[in-house]
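Hi support team,

I submitted a single chain yesterday and got back a structure, but I'm not sure I'm reading the token output correctly. Could someone confirm the output below corresponds to the sequence I sent? I've pasted both exactly as they appear in my results page.

Thanks,
R.
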Amino acid sequence: MKYHKLKLCLFILLVTITSCGEGGTEAGNPGDLISTRVVTGIVPDSASTIQSTGSCAADVALFTDTEAISTDASVGTDCSFETNLPVDKYYAAIFQYQNGRVSTMRFRNGRNASTSNYFYVSAGDTAIDMGSITFDDDDATPEYEPSEQNDSDDDGINDYEDDDDDNDDIPDEDEEDCNHDGSMDDDDEVCSNGE
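Hi R., thanks for writing in. Yes, this is the structure output for that exact sequence:
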């Protein structure tokens, strides 16, 4: 119940914020357009998971960015989901069934990276296809890592294979993820403040 109230409060806040201020979206004044990228995947059917929830192991894929803004994607009868997420952000993903958490996605954001609860969405012309999602108790893993489909620094090397995916001449393995957003970024604000 608390989760629904929180989600409702966040929705009301978001509507209030977007309806205030100067400008607008009327013809001739489009305002700031947010660039998005399609994210797709397929959750397992309930027969292939520990949980018996119906035809699919989840009915919602919920994506929450590091600013606590959530986007949900309904899981279709074919167990697939598709959503548009704003680019240049990190997201956590959980799967739910009838408003209860089923599993949390875990990602590998690089060859040498440990698993993370976050994945990055960079600008791109193609969808990020996670493929078939594997559920293992509380963890879910994608068939295809999003980092293999991103090139954050536009150097022609996907982020998974790129040893310096922010192109700052510091290898990712030498950088810290101080704010735990999944980014091994030497200019994380938390690191910069010495916290």
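A quick pointer for reading it: The chain has two helices and twelve strands. Let us know if anything else looks off.

Best,
Support desk
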